[in-house]
Each structure stands twice: as structure tokens, then as C-alpha cells.
Write a structure and sequence with these properties.
The structure is a homodimer. Chain A is α/β, with parallel strands linked by helices. Chain A is about 45% helix and about 15% strand. Chain A has two domains: about 15-85, Arc Repressor Mutant, subunit A (Orthogonal Bundle); about 90-200, NAD(P)-binding Rossmann-like Domain (Rossmann fold). In chain A, the strands form two sheets. Chain A has a seven-stranded mixed sheet with strand order 6-7-5-4-8-9-10. In chain A, strands 1-3-2 form a three-stranded antiparallel sheet. The first copy, chain A, starts with 14 loop residues before the first helix and ends in a 16-residue tail after the last helix. Chains A and B meet through helix 1, helix 4, helix 5, strand 9 and helix 9 of A and helix 1, helix 4, helix 5, strand 9 and helix 9 of B. The structure holds a DNA duplex (24 and 24 nucleotides).
Chain lengths: ~240, ~240
Amino acid sequence: MTERTPSEASRDIPEATVARLPVYLRALTALSEAGTATCSSEHLATAAGVNSAMLRKDLSHLGSYGTRGVGYDVEYLRYQIAREIGVTQDWPVVIVGIGNLGHALANFSGFRSRGFRVVALLDADPRRHQEVVAGVDVRPFSDLEAIVHEHGVAIGVISTPAPAAQDVADHMVAAGIRSILNFAPTVLAVPPGVDVRKVDLSIELQILAYHEQRKALGAAAVERPVDGALEGRPA
Amino acid sequence: MTERTPSEASRDIPEATVARLPVYLRALTALSEAGTATCSSEHLATAAGVNSAMLRKDLSHLGSYGTRGVGYDVEYLRYQIAREIGVTQDWPVVIVGIGNLGHALANFSGFRSRGFRVVALLDADPRRHQEVVAGVDVRPFSDLEAIVHEHGVAIGVISTPAPAAQDVADHMVAAGIRSILNFAPTVLAVPPGVDVRKVDLSIELQILAYHEQRKALGAAAVERPVDGALEGRPA
DNA sequence: TAGATTGTTAATCGATTAACAATC
DNA sequence: TAGATTGTTAATCGATTAACAATC
């Protein structure tokens, strides 16, 4: 059951590598469109914003797709990475929560071009059910299960307000979805076997703020109040 | 200049910890709003979706803000984390690129409530300069430098199409911005000392697709073509 | 053959986790 | 005092980087 052909050496790719493969894929697509036939690890690494040792290490998890002394065939490597990620196939996606962000996501061209097809837009608010966004009409949230089964949806996107997100996730899981991209600023609880990735705008800004604050401190090391001077411990 | 008071033990917090502090902050805010005065590391960790050992380790980098045998004072810990991140102060932010995503960002309430204030919306397209979005009017991109200086903007958000992003980043850096949140699907080159965080929707979906594909393989291990059977190496 | 560049090894670094002594 | 829970230590795990032998 879990046995594996030894020839298929490429299983169990580290998570950090998986997260970079789409970046390499994009860089290779750009090189391909620019008419470049071959590239070195150095060249590709620069385009992807990583160092070449890391790139080669990452690619070594997939297999041996380069040629020593020469480099990588752009088209060939691009296909191999696309296949490894799974974007050579079509992925039906459903988006739940068609507010400002949901509109932006539905209209985002980068999905379609990478094998993701938005098959349905759902919203709990009946006033939105008149709307057509990006050529797809907005349907009631209660249609979720039917749509998931009809289109074989494996990936769900949540762009509702935070209070609704857990309920949406529960229904997605119940309908058979096992991969969720969550834009709502809340921690989702899901059963084992379900993957959740979160995109959290205000967390990203807070991380930047932390570093920005430290930069400012370096510049004027005085302004910060001395440890504990302002706020006492509670009793 | 770089000397440091030994009492301020909390410098040099690991990057992984910094990325989780905003999650703890959000959980503490929820606890606070629910009227909870005290919580254990176990309780807070569950709310934040991490394990309690990691939470305590993370908090230990900030200082010793708990009470053995008792737990943490919710309000006190919340303030300490907020101060550490820097969200007790106000951060003026500028957003460049007011398409669908820019609209969604400008309207996002989570910014304002966490100390981020959108002081300007900029777009290169003159047709957008009539618009008022979320109470702020859209101004020409060429106003960037003046606005940055006027408001002391330290954080810039890029929500333009990919081809425009590098040029926007260059202008931001030239204007003095040293923290950038990039939503454009492209790798930005910036000088040392400038922080860039990227949010890339299609990369997130591709990471989910990779894992989804592997789940499907586990279920039906046969369907995948045998290694190299379909595609030959290029000459 | 000589030069170039991959794929891999080994060293280093950082992050996570479990366990427990300190202490409220 | 006894029970609870923190803060820290040490072990483990995973990711990054440099260096170089393999080889085109």
C-alpha cells in the first residue's frame, strides 16, 4: 500500500522546497517567454531571488534534470516542476464570501493561467445572488455540497468575514474538500488530513511593523522608554 | 550606539516567533473581549493553534510575563506583545495600485483597528483619479514622494499588476520607504535594509495543489504514469 | 583535453518539542 | 503544604549554505 518504486526517487519533498517550486516555475515561464532555451542554476536562482546552492538542493529532490557543465533545459525543467506541483492538471476551485476581497479573487487572472478554474462563487447574503462576477454568478452558500460533488472541487477559498469562517470550513470539510485557502483573520480548526493555508494581511503588516520599529530604534536608540518604567505588573 | 541595557532582555527575537506574535495578540484580544482575565499557556496555545511548549518558548523571548502556577494576565500580556510588535503606535501606510485588490485592501477594516492608517491611495491611471475609495481619494503615483514625506510613511503596499511592481518598489525605496508588502506576483529586487514581504495567491494555491495531488495518489496509487514514461529528455 | 556547472556531502544554523526544575 | 503552571534546558528535527567530486 505505501510501497514505492525506487525509481521514483522524488517523493517526500521538504515543505520549504515545495513552497519555492512555484517561484521557480514562474521564473522558468518568464525565461521561456523570453525565448531562453537553457539556463544555469546561478541564472535561475537570481531570477527566483534565492541562492544557487539552495536552488540545486531543491531541484535535487525532484530528480536529476540538469546537465553538468551546461545547465537546465528551460522547457523541460518547467514541465517537470509543473508536473511535480500538479499544475499540469485542472483544479476546480470554489470561492465562498464575495465581498471586496472575493471580487478581487474571482477576477484574479493568475488563477486561470495556472490551472485553477473558479467553478462557483458562493455567498450567504441573498442580496448578492443577483450578481455575476467575472462571468460566474453568485449562488447561495447552501449549494456548496452539490457544487463540490458536481465539479469534483478539491480546493476551497474562504474570503468571508472572520466570524463566518469556521462554519464555512466545517461545511467545506463535510462536502469533501481537503484543501482550504483561508483569507479570514481567524484560526480554523479542521480534522487531520485537511490542509489549511492562511493569508493574513494584518499579520503581514504587523511583521513589517516589528522590523520597522527596530530599524527606527537603531537610528535613535534613546526614544524608547526604559524597561517597565511606564507599565507596572498587575497585582 | 549599538549598546544595550542588559535588563532589556528581549532583543533579537527569532523570525519564526515574530511571525506568531500577531496570532497570539489576536487570540488575547478575543479573550479580553470575552471578559477572560487570566489564561494558561495551554489555553492560549489552543486558541492560537500552536502547542503550549512553543507558545511558552516564544513568550520567553519577550520576557517573563506569566505567573507560575497561575498563568498569564490577559490584558498585561496583550499590551506587552502589542508593544513588542509596535502596534501600540500608529503606522501610516500608502497603497499603490487601486484595482480590484487595491479596493479590497483599502476597505479592509483589520488595518485600521491594528494601528495601520491608510493615508493615501495611488494609481498611475488618470481615470482612477476621480475615485474615492473608503473615504480616501485616489491620487497620481507621482505624488508618492510628497505623501511619504508629509505623513512619515514607513510602510508601502503594492497591489499593481506584476509588470509595474518593480518600478513602484524603486520609487518607494527612493522616497524613503523601507518596508514593503507586495501582492504583485513578481520577485522584487531591493537594496539591503529594505524588508519585503510577499503575499502570492497563486503560489498558495499551488502549494495546496501539490499536497492535494499527493493525497489523491495515496487513494489511487495506480493512475500516475510510471517515471519518465511520457516525456523523454531533450537532446 | 580544459572549462563549466551540476548533484551531493557535510557543516552550520535555526526552529520545534518534550521534559522538568523553579516557584507561585 | 499540595497542586498547578511557568520558564528553561537539552534533544531532536529540518533548512540553509559552502565546498567539491562527478561529469558533461
